[in-house]
Amino acid sequence: MTKDFDLIVIGAGMAGVTAAHVCASAGWSVAIVDERPYGGTCALRGCDPKKMLRRGAEIVEAARLMRGKGIRDDGLSIDWADLVAFKQSFVEDMPGRIESGLKDKGIATWHGSARFTGGSTLAVNEDHLEAGRILIATGACPRPLGIPGEEYLTTSTQFMDLTALPSRILFVGGGYVSSEFAHIAARTGAMVHMIDRGERPLEAFDPDLVARLVERGREAGIEFEGTTELKAVKKDGGEYQVLVEQAGKSRHIETGLVVHGAGRIANLERLDLDVAGIDWSEKGVHVDARLRSRSNRSVYAAGDAADTEGAPLTPVGVLEGKRAAKNMLDEPGEAPDYRGVPSVVFTLPELASVGMSEEEAKKATSNLRVAFNDTGGWFSNRRIGESCGAAKVLIDEDGDRIVGAHLLGDSYSELINIFALAIRHRLGARDLKDMIAAYPTLGSDLGSLL
Question: Is 138:267 a contact under the CB 8 Å cutoff?
Answer without folding.
Answer: yes
